[in-house]
Every structure is written in structure tokens, then in C-alpha cells.
Amino acid sequence: MTDRKYVFCTNCGTKNSIDNQYCTNCRQPLMKIAGQTTDQNVDHHNGQGLIDNVTSQINAWTGGKGAVKVSLGDFFAQVFKRHSTEEAEELFIVGTDKTTPSLSDIVNDQVQPWLFSRVLGFVLAIGILMYFLLGLLPAYGIWISMDTFLAVAVPVSALVLFFECNVFQNISFYQVTKMALLGGVLSLIVTILFINFFGNRGLDLVGALQTGFVEEISKVLVAAYFVYKTRAKRVFNGLLIGAAVGTGFAAFENVEYMIDNQTGQIASMQDAITRTMFSISDHTEWCAIATAALVMVIAGKRLSSSDFFNLKFLRFLLVVMLIHALWDWNALDQLGTLRYLALAVITWLIVFVFIHAGLREVKMLQNETKVKASQSEKQN
């Protein structure tokens, strides 16, 4: 058990000894903030659980130290509470000049999304109602509509979850919708261009690796365009922008799979639900992770071409590529649902670490503001 004093670098987030004058990572001068010392003991014994070891390593990649506590009970605590329509409306109108909170008003300890669950239930309910309508009027248009609603239910609700997690509330849902629709189409176009260039190798090991490489590169390039255009600087912004592009990709891809290209047969309701449930941790989350890593290396600056070659970004990009490849590799089909569950857990552990990193960033920004305000008062 240790209890060491430390100071976080306000430029890159690296944890330094309180005695350091300059950051050991970026060499920027350190701002010593009163009271910024460890308020908890960290246990590094070998008895740590597997999840703690995994989150500790991932957290180190983001510039943090120690394991990240993952509590689904805390994270989803608001899901099971009653919320009014007014509360939902207030969430959807953030991101404008008048509705973006000041830095001092931003929550820095936890995020507890809930609106996504209502969106998921609503979209699934529409799809089920379409099923009953199909029984009354068996038309292809209704069948396609049913499959479409069911196929996009999870990707769309996941996007709302990331929208709620953006504690800066500086990106409106109007902007998010545009990024999802335009980003989804553009990333699919780039993917097809890559496939036409490299060829389609199927889903053997090489083909799965190629698919992971091509699709993740395509999505992150499009997401990077939106990062550059919106001048996104914060981890939560990166998570949201990446989730928007990934959701568009996932939604369009899911709808595409609702019709068999060879037979022209429309997928069943069960197939549509299966497809959407397997979207619990795919394109939305993978692109969110890669884009958040890209924004993290920007460190408050404008995106430049050199950021794409930063090791911190490349680590996470390669991880999501590998997860994607394992998701598709046909040699693992014999593992059945177990494969997808294991990869889903890994994916969401990374997401939770990035949420933790985002909250850490908020605290540093708020502390930096307090230091500047204190220094200004002393000068006056």
C-alpha cells in the first residue's frame, strides 16, 4: 500500500511526482495545485483481479495510472429511475451557445446515462408494432420497415449513450445526427474503395485482418475530418464523434444485411433482432475508441497529420483492428456467442477507461482554471 504525493500535467495528463518541475512525458512546466495529492490508497499486489489488470494497462496507455473501477451498477443507476419528458428534452437541446455549460459547471466525477435506454425501447417497440402491422397487411414495404427499425435499434441507442456521456455538452444532437448520416455513408464509400484496391479475401485469418484494417481506417479517417472541422479537443468529444461515424456505418451495414444479395429474400424479424443485438459492441464503440485516442494525442491543439503516427493513437487503432478481425474470423465460429461476449467485454472495458480519462481531463482543466484565477487575483 502506498500513499505518494503527485501532480497531473495539465498539458498531457501524465502523473508526476510533486517534486518535479517539468512533466516527464511532454516536458511542459508543471502547475502545482494545492490539494492535488492522492486521496486514496492503491493496491498493486498480485491479488488484483483480471479486470483490474486489464484496465490498469489500458489506463497507462491513456496517460493515467492504476486500475479503473468499472461499476455497471453506478453507470446505469439512472436507467431504472423515473425521468420526465422535460429531462429528456433538456438533454437533446444541449450543444448550442446558450445551452453549453461553463467549465466550472461540468460534472467531473461520473457519468450516468439513461436516455439511451428509452430510445432503445422506443425503436424496438416501433419494430415490434411493425411486425403486428405486417400480420394485418403483408407488404414488402412494411417488412423492410420492420427490419430497418429493429436493425438500427442498438446502434442508434448506443449513439445516444455516447451523446449523454459527453459532459462538455458542446456538440448538439443536430450535429451528431449529421455526422452519423454523412459519416456513415462516407466511411462505407471509403471502405468499398479500399476493398476494390486490395480485393476481398473472405473471412479467413488474412481476410479478417484485412477487413479490420480497411473498415477501421476508413471510419477513423472520416471521423478525423469531423474532429478537424469541429476543432474537437477533448476525449469525450472524440468518443462522441467516433461513435457518430461508427453508428452511421453500423446502421447502414445492418440494413444492408436485411436483404440477401443473391436471393433477394428479406431477413426475418429474428434475424433483424440478432443483427442489432450483436451491434452491442462493434462499429460504434470501435470508432469511438480510435477517435478518442486520436483526440487525446492532439492535447488541445488542432489536428495535424503527425498525430496519426503518434504511438498512443496507433496502439488503440491496432487494438480495435485486432478486435474487429477476431470478431469476423471464421475459424472462431465454433466458439459461438462466447467469442462475441469476450470481445464485447474487452471493447467496453476500453470504453470505460476512456470515460475515466475524460473525467480526469475535466478535473485537470478545472484545476488549471482555478490556478490561473488564483494567480490573477495575486497579481491584482
Spell out the blueprint of helices and strands.
Blueprint: E1 6-8, E2 15-17, H1 50-61, H2 72-75, H3 85-92, H4 115-136, H5 140-165, H6 173-198, H7 205-230, H8 235-256, H9 269-277, H10 283-298, H11 311-328, H12 337-379
Antiparallel strand pairs: 1-2
Spans with pLDDT under 50 lasting ≥5 residues? 32-48
Give the overall silhouette. globular
Strand content: under 5%
Indicate how many domains the architecture comprises.
1
Q: Could you give the order of strands across the largest sheet?
A: 1-2
Helix content: 55-70%
| CA(first)-CA(last) distance | 43 Å
> What is the chains' assembly state?
single chain
Individual helix count: 12
Rounded Rg? 22 Å
Main β-sheet description: 2 strands, antiparallel
Question: For the residues shown, what is the average pLDDT?
Answer: 89
In total, the number of strands is: 2
Order of helices and strands: EEHHHHHHHHHHHH
Structural category = mainly alpha
What does this entry show, briefly?
This protein is mostly helical and 380 residues long. It is 61% helix and 2% strand. α6 crosses α8.
